Predict the 3D structure of the following.
Amino acid sequence: MASLKYLSGFGNEFASEDPRCPGALPEGQNNPQVCPYGLYAEQLSGSAFTCPRSSNKRSWLYRILPSVRHKPFTAMKCEDLTESWNEVDPDPNQLRWFPFIIPKASEKKVDFVAGLHTLCGAGDSKSRNGIGIHVYACNTSMTDSCFQNSDGDFLIVPQQGEVLITTEFGKMTVEPNEICVIQQGMRFAVDVFGETRGYILEVYGAHFELPDLGPIGANGLANPRDFLTPVAWYEDRRVQGYTIINKYQGKLFSCQQDFSPFNVVAWHGNYTPYKYNLENFMVINCVAFDHADPSIFTVLTAKSTRPGVAIADFVIFPPRWGVADHTFRPPYYHRNCMSEFMGLIKGHYEAKEEGFQPGGGSLHSIMTPHGPDEDCFEKNSTTVLKPERVAEGTMAFMFESSFSMAVTKWGLQTCQRLDKNYYKCWEPLKSHFNPNWRPTSK
């Protein structure tokens, strides 16, 4: 695949035009009476017009035909993509899934949209407040069709297989250990190159942003310059029946048009799709004692209206040094007012080296206890503490949310990937209590 070009920066004001049409961007204004090359001007707004400048999101697209030129939308079958959070009774147990199955192309061709399955979520897209966690498992590229999410932003985490994502803003490739964000309303198509699988965090009513750094200072975590936005690329292609698939109020709709939607010759603005390589994350960690909270590993956050409380955080656990003295270094035992969904891109997660596998997942719901398994506890309670590399060759991540998430029928039953023996990893934990223990004199 030819190397693609990108623009660097997070939330920047970008301007891009396909080099085949120099001067396609109007000079000095957004909406001239006649656009260069006879193009149509179309604004894509990701925020209310009257939002403060710091949070105002919009881009101007200069396209061969406007997106309004299409046949009416009609309902289509949603399969396992849902916003129905009451399909099954609530389940507060610790949940873990084996790797989700990727269908074989020889048995059934499944593209990105057909391969979407909702695992859990909460809230409501109509009231613009909520979250959905999905997995995708597919084996074939989208053909003469694209997807548009009118409900919220997609943060896509590939686990197996590179994807080529064509958007109205241009093309980008995203490999395992990279992520991308397709923001609300942006049309995109996904090409795959074999059996492909990954995770998706969807948020309604908010956009992802970089977390505040506070006492960390001006630098660290995910650096803004490492986020990449595609450059303008267009195709002037007439199609007998091009399908636009629209996710709207939790349902899927489709319409037909006779041209490719990727006909944007030039664009400018700060509302764009973007990608990020997780290897570029600048890790902050403890260098004295105790285990720091996982919030120090936050890559992106979607804030709620309550200060310090997120609709969703995207957190990673990358390779790093562990040096804390007098400390049980793995994650501590915990009950949390947040919901924690864990996924594994590659390697072995430090707190559960067996059972938690790449392409699978786990959910620890609000106030459900969780923590290291027996092997991890015993090993790390007695090991000689010295500087050591943690998570080498591994990349685990967490979708953390203030919402109390419901698991779908697909997640609990249909997928048949639920590990019903998950609870057993803690059963060997034994009491080490010694009432005769006394502190030694210093």
